[in-house]
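Two proteins were folded this term; both appear here.
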Amino acid sequence: MYFSKKVISLLIFSQNNLGNQSCNFRIMRYIHKKTKYGYHMINLLKSYRKIMYSLSVILVQPNLNNIALVDVKTFSQLAAKKFCKITGIKGFFKNFYSGSFTNNKKLEIFKTVIVAEPKAETRVIHELKSTHIPIIAFCNTDNSLRYLDFPIILNTNSKFSSTILYYVIAKIYTVLMKKKHVRTRMRFKDFMVEKKIKKQNIKKKNLRRRDSNPSLTGESHYIGHRTLKIIR
């Protein structure tokens, strides 16, 4: 496996090997050991194999618009949008409305569905179990593997775990699929939440308030004080 060392080092850096204290009996084969504090350590080699199996399912399909991604988490939303932009997968980033996969009026036919948090989005899994659509899910140690075809066992509670997972899958995809419509160069910063943008927006809001209220800046009071001195 060509990418194994780099991918596993990134997954360890983002604490993807650290699971929860509780563990499902079907996920015990993915566990390396249990720490003295009670946390289950995930075997990243097995999770890396699951990533490659899920990529093989994605790459088989000629049109990636037939794949859906359901991710409602706020801290990984920017990375999910960037992943959908690179690969061309359709994403559901807001609250998922039940019936979008089975309702005849709003029917959208998908070949595979990626679920970022199956523990929170149980409606998606219960809806897809009757349609016989393969499900790729990012699971933690306390998730159940029922109705899941390709579970990827990783830490989903951390802030950077899911963002690095999206970055890794998109990077492997761009290397395997060397096409014109796919960008081969990607920066890791594009997948992370940029704090500088938030700070700039806060500064702009403060400047607008100062422009609307000149008393906040102190300029009018200073100018008035100088004019009084000149008059005296």
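Next, the second protein.
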Amino acid sequence: MGEILGLLKVVVVQGKRLVIRDFKSSDPYVVLKLGDQVAKTKVINSCLNPVWNEELTFSLADPVGVLNLEVFDKDRFKADDEMGHANLNLQPLVSAARLSHVLRVSSGEMTLRKVVPDSENCLVRESCISSVNGEVVQSVWLRLRGVESGEIELKQRDTCYIASAGLPDLVYSGYKPHAYSWNEFPPLRDILDAVHKELPGSIFNSLLLNRYKGGNDYVSWHADDEKLYGSTPEIASVTFGCEREFLLKKKPHKSSQERCDEKPPPLKRFKRSSSHSDQHSFTLKHGSLLVMRGNTQRDWLHSVPKRAKAETTRINLTFRRVV
């Protein structure tokens, strides 16, 4: 490996119209490779339009390589079936980052470069590389090769993990974010103290910070039901900056889990299509505190959908207790 240029953070967002490899569906997961570095997502059972929203991190070195992507169907009693592959040339992103440094772009948003689909890449549509408040970002849709259909969306997001000393490492999708201490960020410790004061009896010992740069940054339907948070996790979410919509809906019954919804969260404030799909909307304003506890993660899914009117940055602090 040559000179280290920095870290490449890749979020595997979702897949669309993946091929069937089992009787009626597939159990897909994604493997990313950059040189000798390999990371993969979790398996989504019985779904041709899966949503992962998983962040994977790689060391980026010179000379810049190609990010290779493979999709597989998980099988129990035989080798996993291939569901297509794609690649992404990282040189345009690195060149744009160097241009941003030369231009000394440190605030606001600026389009640095556009990459168009051609025979040499796997792009479904044109991809913009932008500088957003000094950070170079790119979102892409990749068409899978070697199969009759299938697309994968990748994007970059900013995260920061803070935890008390002695806790188990947070590991997901092969990625272990660096855990900062509370003493390194006194303002965040002050916010933790304020949350504890607002919620007597609650004890939080970890924090995940996410930055939403605008309305195109979102989180799809999911539940925070990782084992390290216990069987009935309590989550306190604090919002700063741009207000965003927060959606809740009931998890489907087991009999319907083989079905996968292709559509993004609807725009309506409330939607009731059945007793099992009640959806509720909340507006998370600047300084607001949202608390989820009890069996919320067991029984419900939540999301922060895309919203064109959300033009400014939102900082989200989610406090949890690692058991």
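The chain has three helices and 21 strands. Residues 64 and 94 are 8 Å apart (CA to CA). These notes refer to the second protein only.
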